[in-house]
Amino acid sequence: xxxxxxxxxxxxxxxxxxxxxxxxxxxxxxxxxxxxxxxxxxxxxxxxxxxxxxxxxxxxxxxxxxxxxxxxxxxxxxxxxxxxxxxxxxxxxxxxxxxxxxxxxxxxxxxxxxxxxxxxxxxxxxxxxxxxxxxxxxxxxxxxxxxxxxxxxxxxxxxxxxxxxxxxxxxxxxxxxxxxxxxxxxxxxxxxxxxxxxxxxxxxxxxxxxxxxxxxxxxxxxxxxxxxxxxxxxxxxxxxxxxxxxxxxxxxxxxxxxxxxxxxxxxxxxxxxxxxxxxxxxxxxxxxxxxxxxxxxxxxxxxxxxxxxxxxxxxxxxxx
Length: 320
Known about the structure:
Elements: H1 102-108, H2 111-115, H3 120-138, H4 142-149, H5 158-174, H6 178-197, H7 203-217, H8 221-227, H9 242-255, E1 286-288, E2 293-297, E3 305-308, E4 315-317
Helix pairs in contact: 3-5, 4-9, 5-6, 5-7, 6-7
């Protein structure tokens, strides 16, 4: 019986008038802690994320194992161990580019590199001069090519090299027009002074370029044409001593003597064979920076010097 003798049909100690008989209320409630639709007693993965796509065992359906269920994974084939974003796609880290050299930056058109030059026109001139120089170099005989490798490394600073490159570019662009090249060189002198005053270049650089400018202003158009593409004159190529130069050229001429109409025997200074009084015009000498004329000691080590005639291109015996 219930309280106070009232009927209690389900014998639960609660009178019928206070007890709504409902067998469903007496049943055990099945819990689903992670709200994945699988009751805890059957859930093998009780910590699933709310709203995640799970299988009948309550575990995340994730084919590539990246932690993003297949329904939300926009990249279902991510590599194992890859770093991914919330959409399941791999995050690719951009590699830092290696710093470019000044030449590479200049050819790529980067603003910082261009600002280091006087203008875009100078860049174009420098590139054309570079291509032309290398085209000519490709036509040189093997012995002369080897001579390029025999040169000693230039000791120019980066600043000096850039200024000399620009100076050579001006000569290559305007050597045929004396008035224009003179105006350009004078303008360059003014710019060098301004940049030196503003602490943009060193005094040694300014003095070196000004010396070359003064020499160039004293040259005629023929001389200027000859040195326009000569990296050695502008100090942009290493140097090679006269003895090594003559040995290499004599070796080349000896190997190719059959291509000359009247081959002449070429010997080293120590040879007892008879040599021509005047050297072959194909033998190169050395430019004297003092007067910009080409001289050649022939035979090598003999103390006899020859001067090249700029008009004919032939060697003439020089007397002091």
